[in-house]
Write a structure and sequence with these properties.
62% helix; single chain; binds 3'-deoxy-guanosine-5'-triphosphate; alpha+beta; binds magnesium ion
C-alpha cells in the first residue's frame, strides 16, 4: 500500500491544480518556467511575485507572454546572481522537458508486458532525482502516482487505452451523425432552413473578407397546390423529393442546396457572379421543366412540374444575408408575375 499523502503534500497538490487551472483559463503555454510562476502565485509564498502579477492581471490590455514570465522568474524565483547563469537556468528548465519524460514512462508502461514493472520502477526513480523544482516535483508526483495506481490495479493499461479509444471514436461518429441529421431536411435530404441560415452567414462573411463572388438562387415550384389537390399529399411529397434531387444533382460540389420552406428551395453558389448564377438557374429550370415525372408505385406519368427562380448577387461593399435573400425573393416574385417557369435577376433599383 502506498502511504496516504501528507497534509503538506495535499496543500501543494491543490496549489498545483489551481495553477494549472489559471494557466488553462488564460491560454498560457504550460512550460516549466510559466508553471513555476503560477505555482508560486497560487501558493502565495513569494509576496512580491504575487503583488506584481496581481498588478499585471489588473491591467486588462497587458498580455502575459512567455517573456513576461521569464522576467518574473528571473526577478522573483531564479536565485543565480549572474545574468548569464540566470538565462542558462531558464533555458535548461524549459528544455529539460520534464513532461515529455513522464510521457516516455507512460509509453513504456503501455508497450511492454514482461519486463515493464522493473523498467518502470527504474524510470520513475531516475526521473524523481532529475526534478528538483518543488513545484514540478508535485506535478510529476501526481502523474507518477496515477500511473502506479493503474499498474497496481492489475489492469492492462493498453487494454484500457484501447477501450477508451474505441469509446471516443464511437462518440465522434454519433456526434457527426447527430450534427448531420439536425442540418438535413428529412423529406428531400437537402440541407434544412437552419443549416441554410448558418451557411449564408458563413459564405457572405467569406465573400466580404476575400472579395469573392457569391450568388443566391431562390426557387419555388409553380402551382404546387394544384398538384397536391390533384394527386394528394403523398405524391406531392414524392415530387418535392424529385425536385430537391434534381437541384442537388444539377450543381457542383461546393454549391449549397437547401429546402427553404414548403415548396421553396435556396441555392448558394460561391465563386459565382450574376451571369454564372443566371446560367445555373436557367440550366436547373430547363432540366426540371423537361423531365416527365413518373409515379413510383404505378409507373404512370404525372406530367411535368416547373419552377420559378430569382437570382441575386451578394454585394461585398454594403450588403447582408437578409438583404441578399430579400433581393432574390423579389426577383422570384417577378418570375411568378411574369408567367412562371422562368428565371429573373435582381432588380438594381430595388431598395438596398
Ligand atoms: P405558385 O406558383 O404561386 O407558387 O403557386 P403554389 O400553388 O405553388 O403556391 P402556394 O403558396 O399557393 O401553395 C404552396 C403549396 O405547397 C401549398 C402546400 O400544400 C404545398 N406544400 C408545402 N409544403 C409541402 C410538403 O412538405 N409536402 C407537400 N405535399 N406539399 C407541400
Ligand atoms: Mg409555389
Ligand atoms: Mg411558395
Amino acid at each position: 500500500m502506498k502511504p496516504a499523502p501528507t497534509k503538506n503534500e495535499n496543500v501543494a497538490l491543490n496549489h498545483a491544480r489551481h495553477a494549472l487551472l489559471l494557466m488553462t483559463e488564460r491560454g498560457i503555454e504550460p512550460t516549466p518556467v510559466n508553471y513555476a510562476i503560477w505555482y508560486h502565485y497560487t501558493s502565495g509564498d513569494k509576496k512580491e511575485l504575487k503583488r506584481e502579477m496581481d498588478e499585471l492581471l489588473g491591467q486588462k490590455a497587458v498580455r502575459i507572454t512567455n517573456d513576461v514570465h521569464v522576467y518574473l522568474y528571473n526577478k522573483h524565483i531564479n536565485t543565480r546572481p549572474d545574468k548569464e547563469e540566470q538565462a542558462a537556468e531558464v533555458t535548461a528548465l524549459n528544455t529539460q522537458s520534464v513532461l515529455s519524460e513522464i510521457m516516455k514512462v507512460m509509453e513504456k508502461f503501455t508497450g511492454e508486458t514482461a519486463t515493464y514493472n522493473q523498467q518502470i520502477d527504474q524510470q520513475i526513480s531516475g526521473l524523481s532525482e532529475k526534478i528538483t523544482d518543488p513545484a514540478l516535483k508535485v506535478m510529476a508526483k501526481e502523474i507518477i502516482d496515477r500511473t502506479m495506481a493503474i499498474r497496481n490495479s492489475g489492469m492492462e493499461l493498453s487494454q484500457r487505452l484501447e477501450e477508451s479509444k474505441r469509446e471516443v471514436t464511437e462518440l465522434k461518429t454519433n456526434l457527426n451523425k447527430v450534427t448531420t441529421e439536425s442540418n438535413r431536411d428529412f423529406l428531400t435530404g437537402t440541407a434544412n432552413r437552419k443549416a441554410f441560415e448558418a451557411k449564408i452567414d458563413e459564405l457572405t462573411a467569406w465573400a466580404k473578407e476575400r472579395q469573392k463572388d457569391l450568388c443566391l438562387l431562390m426557387i419555388d415550384i409553380d402551382h404546387f397546390k394544384q398538384f397536391n389537390d390533384k394527386y394528394g399529399h403523398l405524391i406531392g411529397d414524392e415530387i418535392l423529393r424529385k425536385v430537391g434531387h434534381a437541384l442537388f444533382e444539377g450543381v457542383k460540389g461546393k454549391d449549397f442546396v437547401a429546402r427553404y420552406g414548403g415548396e421553396e428551395f435556396a441555392i448558394l453558389l460561391p465563386d459565382t457572379g450574376l451571369a454564372g448564377g443566371l446560367a445555373v438557374a436557367e440550366h436547373l429550370r430547363r432540366n426540371i421543366a423537361e423531365t416527365d415525372l413518373v409515379r413510383k408505385d404505378t409507373g404512370t406519368s404525372l406530367g411535368v412540374v416547373t419552377v420559378s427562380v430569382g437570382v441575386a448577387r451578394y454585394r461585398t461593399d454594403a450588403d447582408s444575408s437578409v438583404l441578399l435573400i430579400s433581393r432574390a425573393d423579389n426577383a422570384l416574385y417577378r418570375s411568378k408575375m411574369g408567367g412562371r417557369n422562368r428565371v429573373t435577376q435582381e432588380s438594381f433599383d430595388a431598395p438596398q
